[in-house]
Design brief:
By secondary structure, the chain is of the alpha/beta class. The protein has eleven helices and ten strands. Helices cover about 50% and strands about 15% of the residues. The longest helix is centred in the N-terminal third of the chain and has 20 residues. It is globular.
Length: about 260
């Protein structure tokens, strides 16, 4: 049984973490296959939005597989941390919008995976938290860096220092997730958002993602320069001209990613 499943629904790709017997915990095989699938779809023009969710009813992802971790040497643990960090950075940087569809618990590395996505939509029964300090370790897959950028430094310190687990509603209140919906509507709602994004120019969306991700890490003047360069990349595209024609002709545009 593959630890990561992929399914295309039109222009939307659904990646499913498929280890429900261990609450979709992250081990080396899952990470390697996730990396492989991200590489496969990186340049796939048919895929315009990626959804990531977990198999089963209980978990999006409960974090690292601690049974595997207990068998690893110190060097192997370091290799695991490097692998998970690099894989989540790929997820963050892939030039397609990503949505974490949090169908259950998202603890530790599971929440770090969700933080590497562009958007997060959670089921109303979901629980989440960076719980590593309760195990005498720290978040090692980007949690100490991405969580403060999403919810603010003080709130991130509170959540990480206490290893607190919070409800989906609390996560929505502090801006950790974009939206909370009843579990039975979770995937339908995620698909609605994905289709809303997919209807727009894919090259423009990719450039907007890059401009936001990179520009938010620099000063405003450098950020404006990055935005200008990203806009310049869009000017010669066929999609930009199609958008103008569609507006003039009062019809929906047909974007090809060219």
């Amino acid at each position: 049984m593959e630890p990561v499943l992929d399914e295309k629904k039109g222009s939307v790709l659904i990646l499913t973490l498929n280890r429900p017997e261990v609450m979709n915990a992250i081990n080396f095989p899952l990470l390697r296959l996730l990396k492989e699938k991200l590489e496969t779809y990186w340049f796939d023009k048919e895929v315009r939005v990626i959804l990531i969710t977990g198999a089963g009813e209980k978990a999006f992802c409960a974090g690292a597989d601690l049974k595997e971790r207990a068998t690893l040497s110190e060097v192997e643990v370091k290799k695991f941390i490097l692998t998970i960090r690099n894989t989540f950075t790929m997820l963050e940087e892939i030039p397609k919008p990503t949505i974490a569809v949090i169908n259950g618990v998202a603890f530790g590395g599971g929440l770090e995976m969700a933080l590497a996505c562009d958007l997060r939509i959670a089921a109303d029964q979901a629980l989440m938290g960076l719980v590593e300090t309760s195990l005498a370790i720290i978040p090692g897959a980007g949690g100490t860096q991405r969580l403060p950028r999403v919810v603010g430094k003080a709130r991130a310190k509170e959540l990480i220092f206490t290893a607190r687990r919070i409800t989906a509603k609390e996560a929505e209140r502090i801006g950790l997730v974009n939206e909370v919906v009843p579990r039975e509507r979770l995937m339908d709602r995620a698909m609605e958002v994905a289709q809303e994004i997919a209807a727009n120019g894919p090259l423009a969306v990719a450039q907007a993602k890059y401009a936001i991700n990179v520009g938010s890490e620099v000063g405003i003047h450098e950020g404006l320069f990055i935005e200008s360069r990203c806009y310049d990349n869009i000017i010669p595209t066929k999609d930009r001209l199609e958008g103008l024609r569609a507006f003039r002709e009062k019809r929906k545009p047909h974007y090809t990613g060219e």
